[in-house]
Amino acid sequence: MIQTNENDSDIPDIIRMIHDSPYRIVLAITGGGTESIGELLRYGRGSDTILEAIVPYSKESLDNFIGKEPLRYASTDTARDMAMSAYRHALYLNSMAEKNNHENLIGIGVTCKLARITNERQGRQHEIQFASQSYLKTTSSSLFFKENTSREEQEKIATEFIIENIASICNPDEKLQYSMLKKEMLKELIKDEAEAELPLAELLLKTLENINSEKNVQPLKIDLGINDNEPRIIFSGSFNPCHTKHIEMAKIAADKYKEPVNFEISLANVDKPPIDYISLKKRINSLLKYREGKYMGNIFLTNSPLFAEKAILFPNSIFLIGTDTLNRLFNEKYYRNGEDKQSLLKHFHKYNIRFMVFRRNNADIDMDMEIPDICDLVPLDRYADDGTSSTMIRKKRREKCSDHVI
Fold first, then answer.
1. How many other C-beta atoms lie within 10 A of the C-beta of residue 348?
2. Which of 47, 251, 315, 318 is most buried, with most CB under 10 Å away?
């Protein structure tokens, strides 16, 4: 067991332990904690572990690195997005090696909001968000500082925190004592993780390897005991989380077609990074809350973000969508290479696909759109959207959890 203390740091021993492990890492850090990169390379043998260290420091650089503009730059969601992008880059670098082993690759994402030397806003929360992504696991560690800790103190703790978290991932059997983290400086420390079984790990691997390639793999079914060998009603979405209006839509469809509704989540998304295991676990659990409902079918996981691809995986199906998705469906931004509206409609007819469209608040149907005959609009007196959204629910949850203290 390696124990650490303030006066006699064992960081060199911890780093040597990291380099003795078989893992190889792409490390991405922004907003603070970059001194950890120098520490990881200071004692030699850094190339045994570090494939690449990236500092996407500006807003534009970080947006480009994760493939979107995050709601909050210092958040566990952003750290996990960074870890996923780093893991994907590790897979790319590993593919060029003579001997490659994707099971030993780790993507690390760290985003920090530390004290400012000048112009510090009163009450501004200082935090370190650490996340990792590997073949079988996603982890996150969130550290929040109490007020009146200096930038120098926070940078030192950030360096030690990052290195210790990496060590615990590379050497899970080695118990590290976090005594170097001064408790009087800390407001809260939160940890989370999710592991994947091999079929899901392989689906994520194929998703990362085939992004933008239009290469689909067979759906992975989470079987809820519904006898539905050929699912006919599909509700595709991110379900982050699933909420009451999703369920109302499912009930309406199940009642109309006298069949259960199957839910589909694509790990790949046209506008966002792939879904990590922690986020996926939460999304699936939000669906499982309703598993006893007669309207509830099975859950399918895919790597197919476009409905043209979903049509191939689920032929002869009716997809439930909102008016916002209808507008995107026939937006050329979301067409496959060489595709236009007419060829897309022909594709849907080939696979016998229809769409059940629910009107959404603040998402009117494009006035220039001629609604195709494969789309059935649900009457307003049958379904009325009240503005409930997954984004709104996540925002309220963040606000509710902002006052925890250890």
1. 19
2. 318
Tally of CB atoms within 10 A around 222: 16
**DSSP 8-state code for residue 134:** E
| Strands laid side by side in the 24-30 sheet | 50-54, 24-30, 105-113, 127-134, 137-145, 186-195
Which residues pair with residue 266 across a beta bridge?
A: 302
Mean pLDDT of 301-329: 94
In terms of Cβ atoms closer than 10 Å to its own Cβ (0-12, 13-18, 19+), residue 128 is: buried
HSE at residue 356, side-chain half, CA atoms within 13 A, is 23
Alpha carbons 38 and 69: distance in angstroms, whole number: 28
Q: How far is CA 107 from CA 7, 93, 166, 194, in A?
A: 31, 12, 10, 15
Report the C-alpha gap between 247 and 226 in whole angstroms: 17
Secondary structure of residue 396 in the 3-state scheme: helix
Question: How far apart are the C-alpha atoms of 399 and 303, rounded to whole Å?
Answer: 32
Residues 399 and 379: beta-carbon distance below 8 Å: no
Q: What is the mean pLDDT of the chain?
A: 88
Q: Transcribe 340-389 into DSSP letters.
A: -HHHHHHHHHHTT-EEEEE-BTTBPPPTT----TTEEEPPTTT-------
Whole-model pTM: value is 0.91
Span 113-157, pLDDT tens digits: 999 888 788 878 999 999 999 999 999 999 999 888 889 999 999
pLDDT digits (tens, 9 = 90+) for 352-373: 999 999 988 777 777 667 889 9
- Identify the residue whose tokens are 């079988």: 136
Residue 81 tokens, joined? 């997005």
> Which DSSP category does 181 fall into?
S
Q: Which range (7-16, 98-107, 273-282) has the least confidence?
A: 7-16
Half-sphere exposure of 42 (CA within 13 A, CB side): 12
Q: What pLDDT is recorded for position 99?
A: 64
